[in-house]
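Re: that chain you flagged

S.,

Sorry for the slow reply, it's been a week of failed gels. I finally had a moment to sit down with the sequence you sent. For the record, here it is as I used it:
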Amino acid sequence: MTSYSRVALVTGANRGIGLAIVRSLCQQFSGDVVLTARDAAQGHAAVQQLQEEGLSPRFHLLDICNRQSIRALRDFLLKEYGGLDVLVNNAGIAFKGRVVNLSSAMSLVALKRCSPELQQKFTSETITEEELVGLMNKFVEDTKNGVHLKEGWPLGKLVPYSVSKVGLTVLSRIQARKLSEQRTGDKILLNSCSPGWVRTDMGGPKALKGPEEGAETPVYLALLPSNAEGPHGEFVLEKNVVQWEPGVELPPWLEVCGVL
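Prediction finished late last night. Pasting the structure tokens below so you have them in one place:
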């Protein structure tokens, strides 16, 4: 019988938080770590950088918007490892193991600023994937038509980004619920998290955290012990579960970065 090594995979990992997550996993994860990127040259350069630090990640090309690219990665993982143990969705795809979706604390801001009707829908314990897709499509159409404020969508900076992260957080909750209902024996733990305000191309130079610090919570969730029963289906910030509700207290750094 074939014996496979354990494997962790990080999407969008050629720079920033994704690269920091790969670095940390290489140092802490018992198994192979696969760094993926949609640009082969940038991906190989990132792997070379980590190799110069004495680490040994593997590289595989992945464009999450290209089905052929996703299938090629799937076939590679099945052939080399028989599946996948840890998946960190930094780019924003699942197999058996720990699944970590990188959301943002901005999703909490957007939820708080939505109308009560939208808040109720986004926090519903029974919302379906189809209903969520409908809401996301409605946001796009309402914005195009200039009626998004009238329809209860939030006002403020980075609204498209924030609402997209609401969608990712809610999708994570839906997927976790499905796993609990349909694949109980597999012991898959799926969560979304915020890395915090990180000095990346998006976060800017004034952000409070470096990429290594931003990687701490995603890596913590990726390395939950095999006997852990949770967290599962939660939104996690600074390694702590934050309730997904509009009345939750927001992190003070959101005011510092000027989004409140």
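What I noticed first: The mean pLDDT is 90.

Talk soon,
D.
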